[in-house]
Each structure stands twice: as structure tokens, then as C-alpha cells.
Design a protein that fits this description.
Blueprint: H1 45-63, H2 65-88, H3 90-101, H4 103-122, H5 128-134, E1 143-147, E2 161-165
Antiparallel strand pairs: 1-2
Helix pairs in contact: 1-2, 2-3, 4-5
């Protein structure tokens, strides 16, 4: 009979001790993968929440300086209040941690922000002051003017074909 062990069997061949290394032609054993353990947080929840509010306020300030500054000014107190709540309620802490994780989608959204703002400003969908702060030139608004009709003589003032320009 064959001296090789049955696949999945723990028995070693009779001529080899159980703790001997496998023969060179044996398929390699699959090693167990260890789960990646996330690095411990070195920044407090309060500090990360403050940074989040300041970042959000910085985005808002582009469209509305008053509201954006309000968000930035309230960031430390708001973050402290949320951290106090998170200490009392584990579900709140878990939700905040998930929100702060952001991940790849958060990066994708933030990368698109300049594109969206530029398009909105260019199409006059942002206040002119916001467009100016961003350095984006809004598209010129079309104006209506008349072009003289060559079939009419020059004495007919105000006649002509309306033309949209810009």
C-alpha cells in the first residue's frame, strides 16, 4: 500500500516522525492570515471632532463667511460636549468613531470639492463674493443688443435683429 498520508489526515508516514518537515515535493501548508489590528488612537476624540468642525467650517466659509466662522468658533465647545456624551453612551461613541473614520469615500468626496465649486462658480450658481475668494471668474451673463439689418436704410433708428452675445 501507499505510505503517504490521506489528505487532511494528521498521520505521518511510518518512516518519518510526526514532527519532521514535509518532503520537498509536498504542497506548502497554508498559513493562517492574521487580521490586521488597527493602530491605537493617539489623538483624543475631542481633538478629532474639533478638527472635523474646523474643516467643515472652512468649507462653509467659502460660500457663507458668517456661517462658516460660526462653525469654526463653536468647534471646541461642540467637540467637548460630544465627547462628554460619548463617554456616557457607548452607542454615540461608536457612531462618532465611524463618522471620523471617513475612509476612502471621504477622500474621494474631498478631492471633488474644488471641481464642484469651480463649476458652480463658473455657472453663476455661487455668490460673486465666493467666486472672487476662490479666484474663479464667473461666466459673463449674456446681453441683448441689436445688429442693424442691412436691408434697411441707416435712418431707421432702433430697428434691427436682436442678438444675444456673451
Amino acid at each position: 500500500m501507499n505510505d503517504l498520508p490521506i489528505p487532511g489526515s494528521e498521520e505521518a508516514p511510518k518512516d518519518r516522525p510526526a514532527d519532521a518537515p514535509p518532503p520537498p515535493d509536498a504542497p506548502p501548508k497554508r498559513e493562517k492570515r492574521e487580521r490586521a489590528i488597527p493602530a491605537p488612537r493617539t489623538t483624543s476624540l475631542e481633538k478629532r471632532l474639533t478638527e472635523l468642525y474646523v474643516s467643515l467650517g472652512s468649507l462653509v466659509v467659502v460660500a457663507d463667511p458668517t456661517c462658516g466662522q460660526a462653525v469654526i468658533a463653536a468647534a471646541p465647545e461642540t467637540a467637548a460636549a460630544l465627547e462628554a456624551l460619548a463617554k456616557e453612551n457607548p452607542k454615540v461613541r461608536k457612531a462618532l468613531e465611524k463618522m471620523l473614520a471617513g475612509g476612502a469615500w471621504g477622500g474621494v468626496l474631498m478631492a471633488h470639492f474644488p471641481i464642484v465649486v469651480t463649476v458652480l462658480a463658473h455657472h453663476n450658481m455661487l455668490p460673486s463674493t465666493t467666486a472672487a475668494v476662490l479666484g474663479v471668474t464667473p461666466k459673463a451673463k449674456p446681453t441683448l443688443r441689436t445688429v442693424p439689418d442691412p436691408s434697411e436704410d441707416e435712418s431707421s433708428v432702433g430697428s434691427g435683429t436682436p442678438v444675444v452675445s456673451g
